[in-house]
Amino acid sequence: MISWNLPVILISRHYLGSINHTLLSIGALKSRNIPIEGIVFVGEENKATESIILNTTGVHFIARIPLANEVNSTFIQDQSEVIKEYFQS
Q1: In what order do the strands lie in the sheet with 36-42?
Q2: CA distances from 89 to 2, 7, 28, 83, 84 (A)
Q3: In 6, 37, 42, 67, which residue has its Cα 20 to 30 A from 59's Cα atom?
Q4: What confidence tens digit (pLDDT) does each residue in 55-82 have?
Q5: d(CA 23, CA 54)
Q6: What is the pTM of this model?
Q7: For 20-57, how does the pLDDT look when each residue is reduced to its tens digit (9 = 90+)?
Q8: Contact 39, 19 (CB under 8 A)
Q9: Strand pairing of 61-65 and 8-13?
Q10: Rounded Cα distance, 20 and 4, in Å
């Protein structure tokens, strides 16, 4: 990402340890001066976890997408529309 000079969109899924993993990932990116566009949460909403991550880091919430049993072109197209809304607002 540094050589391409592009911001990162971080993906976080809710599971035991996800707060720690996400905070460590954000810390590593920030320490390398890699810009973070925002975060996409995967799976059901977990308000407590998301609040801790967003409030601790100041990273912007982009979207929440569902867990997929199969990642296919329809799923990707549907979720790209969800994410596109963030960039159009």
Answers
A1: 8-13, 36-42, 61-65
A2: 26, 18, 28, 11, 9
A3: 67
A4: 999 999 999 999 999 999 999 999 999 8
A5: 9
A6: 0.88
A7: 999 999 999 999 999 999 999 999 999 999 999 999 99
A8: no
A9: unpaired
A10: 27
